[in-house]
Structure prediction request, 222 residues.
Amino acid sequence: ISICRDLPNIEVITFSVNGISDLEPLHQCQNLSELYLRKNNITSLDELFYLKALPRLRVLWLAENPCCGPDPHRYRMTVLRNLPSLQKLDNQAVTEEELSQALVDGEEITAPPARRSVENGWSESSASSAAEATTEPQSELLSCSLEETNKTQEELDMKSVPRDKYSSFSSQETDCSRKKRNNVLNAILLLMKELDAEGLEIIQQTVVRRLQAFQKKELQEE
Prediction:
């Protein structure tokens, strides 16, 4: 997620099922309008502090994070009090009545969250979230990654990835490496939106050379 510090013009981010716990890298994404963070490791609603300065944020999906807590009403009211410009939260439209009620039932977030101490560059929360990520069922990882990657491709006016094609990679591949590959693919598709014609031509040439190398290797192995 740290790459977002270098993408101030990005408009849509899909980071669901990624073990993310820190939203600080997003606070400079001033053009961000849609943010999908379902099923991560965000433990505190104080992380919303970093989203309050995003004037164009209209869609947020934060469900299935620890910060949602046992009280769905309190959670929703707190999010809406701090992000009153949202039009949709967790795939549910925001109403004027909710925004008014949020001023009463929601909690105002005025400071960033306190961070845990880090040892050897690896925080306790990061370690636990990484461990949880590897236990995600393969079918759920595939479904989530496929859905969000196809959404990104729709934004780019690209053809969606067929499910049979998406699942045709090596059956010996671990869930963790599969999730990593899918996340890399989604990140590349998002980054393509930041490129101009010259940049896209460079990407195209690189992809062609890469494919030719793979084809040559396959022929040699046969």
